[in-house]
């Protein structure tokens, strides 16, 4: 069962916090809170136990009802606790203007807190009665451990049925199987003798098992013995090893399943049997590294030319096994062939009126063979009947919405859902959250992680920032092939954005609907009115949506997202969302100052607020009311300054603003700030002092209107305090910064991984950079490039991305700096080199891992200086793409340069692609 545990993960720590001295609960109320905490811990344990049941054994409907009640109860309790905490923590904030006014304020504060404590006492008594009712219902109907029989075919039967498709039905299988056969069989005499391992990696439904089976059938006769074993999510290793032995020699091990051998005995038997044989083993559907380690122990690494193929959805497992082969989705052409073949029996036959619909459906399938075959099988059942176009249109509209309820679609979701079932509760919640985005969205990783933080899904760990923990969650979903990278940074190789495959979106949307996790308005779905709206995603609104929204109770809504295509007038007043935590109004031009005033007046529970690219021009003083606010995005607005009350937002961890916005004095009070995405202009020593107080900061962009000698010591102290700094950008006055920046290469500052100093030319690579062992990305412009600079840059052990500009020629006429293997650059994969005369040359062995090279130079100056552009491009052994950007005044010289560059590229054994601009 795919149980979502509601707010349990964040609620239990809050109940523990309520018991601290800070909230001064009286004795009876403390006892009630202890009761709630104990009951909810037991309920959470029961929910987790239910969610860990085998996916093929769905629980009794009574269990599902009980789980729903517990989940809803956890949300309601957390809402009550949050209201109490906000009221007690907020109190009266106005500073007293006189002793008499201070006396009155203190009296009001005491009365307010007494009333709030009385209210929470009443709420807890009511909650306690609800918990008792839920618990008694559980006992009354004896829901524990009640499981129904599997409905329909089991997961293993559904997954393995793909193995037995006729080869003639498998489109585009020949090319991929040929490549795998070459890998397994070896290409030369030496490699033919070694053990070869190929790990096929990809999302569920991509055809990994099918491909492995095709290769297996093609080459098993070339080996002494062979076996094909499936592992699955919860493997029985004894049964797997026995199955392997039986397939390897059916005569010798005909009674192996009757033997009582343990795992150690079975592993030894396998090793002894295979030691002197040329064997071929397929290990299908591995889910974790420990399982692979155990299997690998049973397969000896002999010199008889044996081969192993593994299949897995998890990239890390494939990397550990070795020989990763990432299986790609089918092309549109091959998708069409498979689709038509399945429906009409021919690869190129389709009625004209269905052609466009076919293309639309296949776009949603995204090259996933399982999805194509599933949907084609469903559509094939209607061939020969009337209104085909209407039926196909209905199927197309339902795909990705989680609403299609046919048996074929349910079976497909079953296969895809194994990956979801394998996730821990916090990652299940993070994945379901992605159903809030419209189809085909390119989702910004940075924004997504901060939304997870705002919702409370990310739990801070000792010594790690919120974002670091959230990034780990994101990487795990990528690793398990549940989300796909869309854009990867060349510097740190991190995924800057991602996409969700439409069929995975269909799965998580279906689960989200089932769990009432998120409600979507997109012009085609009807909301289930008996569900509380916990999260609302408004994607496309029409008149019907507006009417439907007006009937909803939004008092429990925690997240509100307004995407393009809606009218702000259509949504209820912001006061209708009293417990809202996450609000994304970015790019909604109709949002203006009065909306922000309402936000500050009513939405005290906000943790995440995005008002980027709106018409807001002023931040009200009441911004201080948002005491729980953690993330604030204000790019592209008309705001120019913050009120002094802004510095009271003590929980803020991420602030994104334009460089034109001036931070108020005292912004050093924002002590939890981890990310400050803005150009902070330094105009006084107090500014530097405030920055130095932000000791949690990981990203910093500062600029200097002008440099004063008095800044040097405060800046040195400031950078010394920022022990978590990972990204630094400095604009202006570089020549005076050497001593101030020395602290970056001393002590704890070993985690700085990105520095941007591109805006102004400096004399040379500064000495302090030599100590930055974790620096992976550097953008810098120097006046002249010398051997010392190359030595320093080349010795940076983690440098993967370098943008290097050179203002003036370094050497004399006809002389170039030779970049040889003595300069190391052992990790560099990306180089952008800007110079008027391109005064470097690559020797044999230079930059051994460089994959992408961009060169920018002036043709006239380069030819006048050197007379040629032979710079050794043929010597870059790993380069895969070269981009040449040049300026010229005479076309003739341009042709000469292009020919010379082309000649060097042709001589490069790696055959890189070349692009001239």
3D structure, described in words:
With 917 residues, the protein is of the alpha/beta class. Among the domains are: 8-140, no CATH class; 155-326, 3-Layer(aba) Sandwich (Rossmann fold); 332-399; 411-517, Winged helix-like DNA-binding domain superfamily/Winged helix DNA-binding domain (Arc Repressor Mutant, subunit A, Orthogonal Bundle). Helices cover 40% and strands 15% of the residues. The chain contains 29 helices and 27 strands. The strands form four sheets. It has a 17-stranded parallel sheet, with helices on both faces. Strands 2-3-4-1-5 form a five-stranded parallel sheet, sandwiched between helices. It has a three-stranded antiparallel sheet with strand order 6-8-7. Helix 11 (289-297) links the parallel strand 3 and strand 4. The chain starts with 7 loop residues before the first helix and ends with a strand. The relative contact order is 0.05. Residues 436-508 form the Disease resistance protein winged helix domain. Residues 181-335 form the NB-ARC domain. GO terms for molecular function: ADP binding. Pfam families: LRR_14, NB-ARC, Rx_N, WHD_DRP.
């Amino acid at each position: 069962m795919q149980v979502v545990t509601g707010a349990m993960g964040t609620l239990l720590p809050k109940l523990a916090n309520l018991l601290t001295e800070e909230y001064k609960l009286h004795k009876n109320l403390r006892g009630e809170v202890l009761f709630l905490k104990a009951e909810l811990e037991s309920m959470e344990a029961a929910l987790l136990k239910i969610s860990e049941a085998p996916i093929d054994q769905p629980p009794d409907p009574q269990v599902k009802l009980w789980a729903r009640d517990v989940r809803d109860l956890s949300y309601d309790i957390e809402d009550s606790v949050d209201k109490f905490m906000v009221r007690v923590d907020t109190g009266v904030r106005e500073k007293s203007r006189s002793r008499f006014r201070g006396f009155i304020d203190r009296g009001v504060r005491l009365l307010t807190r007494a009333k709030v404590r009385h209210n929470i006492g009443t709420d807890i008594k009511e909650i306690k009665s609800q918990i008792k009712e839920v618990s008694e219902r559980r006992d009354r109907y004896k829901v524990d451990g009640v499981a129904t029989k599997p409905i329909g075919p089991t997961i293993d039967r559904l997954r393995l049925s793909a193995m037995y498709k006729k080869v003639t039905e498998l489109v585009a299988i020949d090319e991929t199987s040929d490549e795998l056969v070459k890998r397994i069989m070896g290409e030369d005499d030496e490699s033919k003798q070694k053990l070869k391992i190929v790990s096929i990696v990809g999302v569920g439904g991509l055809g990994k098992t099918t491909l492995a089976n095709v290769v297996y059938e093609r080459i098993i006769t070339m080996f002494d013995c062979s076996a094909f074993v499936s592992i699955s999510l919860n493997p029985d290793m004894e049964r797997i090893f026995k199955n392997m032995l039986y397939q390897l020699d059916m005569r010798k091990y005909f009674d192996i399943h009757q033997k009582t051998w343990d795992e150690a005995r079975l592993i030894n038997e396998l090793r002894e049997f295979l030691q002197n044989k040329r064997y071929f083993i397929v290990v299908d559907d591995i889910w974790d590294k420990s399982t692979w380690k155990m299997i690998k122990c049973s397969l000896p690494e002999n010199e008889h030319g044996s081969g192993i193929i593994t299949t897995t959805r998890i990239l890390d497992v494939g990397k550990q096994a070795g020989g990763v082969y990432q299986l790609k989705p089918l092309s549109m052409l091959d998708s069409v062939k498979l689709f038509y073949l399945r429906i009409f029996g021919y690869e190129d036959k389709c009625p004209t009126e269905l052609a466009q619909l076919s293309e639309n459906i296949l776009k949603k399938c995204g090259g996933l063979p399982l999805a194509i075959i599933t949907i084609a099988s469903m559509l094939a059942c209607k061939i020969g009947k009337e209104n085909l176009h209407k039926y196909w249109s209905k199927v197309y509209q339902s795909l990705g919405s989680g609403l299609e309820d046919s048996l074929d679609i349910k079976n497909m979701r079953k296969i895809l859902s194994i990956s979801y079932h394998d996730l821990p509760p916090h990652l299940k919640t993070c994945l379901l959250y992605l159903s809030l985005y419209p189809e085909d969205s390119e989702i910004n990783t940075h924004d997504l992680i901060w939304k997870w933080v705002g919702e409370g899904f990310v739990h801070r760990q000792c010594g790690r920032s919120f974002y670091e923990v959230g990034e780990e969650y994101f990487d795990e979903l990528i690793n398990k092939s549940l989300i796909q990278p869309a854009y990867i940074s060349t510097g740190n190789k991190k995924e800057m954005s991602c996409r969700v495959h439409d069929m995975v979106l269909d799965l998580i949307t279906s689960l989200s609907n089932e769990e009432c996790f998120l409600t979507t308005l997109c012009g085609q779905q009807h909301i289930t009115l008996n569900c509380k709206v916990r999260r609302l995603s408004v994607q496309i609104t029409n008149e019907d949506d507006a009417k439907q929204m007006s009937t909803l109770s939004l008092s429990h809504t925690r997240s509100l997202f307004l995407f393009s295509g809606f009218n702000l007038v259509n949504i209820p007043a912001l006061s209708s969302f009293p417990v809202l935590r996450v609000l994304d109004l970015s790019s909604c031009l109709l949002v203006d100052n009065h909306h922000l005033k309402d936000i500050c007046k009513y939405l005290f529970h906000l943790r995440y607020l995005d008002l980027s690219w709106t018409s807001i021009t002023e931040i009200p003083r009441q911004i201080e009311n948002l005491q729980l606010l953690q993330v604030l995005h204000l790019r592209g607005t008309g705001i120019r300054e913050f009120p002094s009350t802004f510095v009271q937002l003590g929980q803020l961890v991420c602030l994104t603003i334009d460089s034109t916005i001036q931070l108020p004095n005292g912004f050093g009070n924002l002590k939890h700030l981890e990310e400050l995405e803005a150009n902070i202009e330094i105009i006084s020593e107090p500014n530097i002092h405030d920055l130095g107080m932000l000791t949690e900061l990981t990203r910093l962009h500062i600029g200097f209107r002008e440099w004063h000698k008095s800044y040097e010591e405060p800046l040195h102290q400031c950078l010394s305090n920022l022990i978590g700094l990972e990204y630094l950008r400095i604009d202006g006055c570089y020549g005076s910064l050497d001593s101030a920046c020395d602290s970056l290469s001393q002590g704890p500052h070993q985690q700085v991984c990105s520095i941007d100093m591109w805006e102004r030319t400096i004399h040379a690579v500064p000495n302090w950079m030599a100590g930055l062992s974790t620096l992976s990305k550097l953008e810098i412009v120097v006046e002249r490039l010398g051997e010392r600079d190359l030595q320093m840059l080349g010795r940076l052990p983690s440098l993967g991305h370098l943008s290097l500009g050179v203002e003036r020629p370094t050497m004399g006429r006809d002389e170039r700096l030779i970049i040889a293997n003595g300069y190391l650059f052992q990790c560099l994969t990306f180089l952008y080199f800007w110079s008027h005369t391109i005064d470097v040359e690559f020797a044999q062995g230079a930059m051994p891992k460089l994959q992408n090279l961009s060169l920018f130079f002036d043709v006239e100056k380069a030819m006048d200086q050197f007379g040629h552009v032979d710079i050794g491009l043929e010597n870059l052994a790993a380069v895969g793409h070269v981009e040449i950007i040049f300026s010229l005044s005479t076309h003739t010289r341009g042709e000469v340069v292009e020919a010379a560059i082309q000649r060097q590229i042709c001589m490069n054994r790696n055959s890189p692609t070349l692009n001239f601009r």
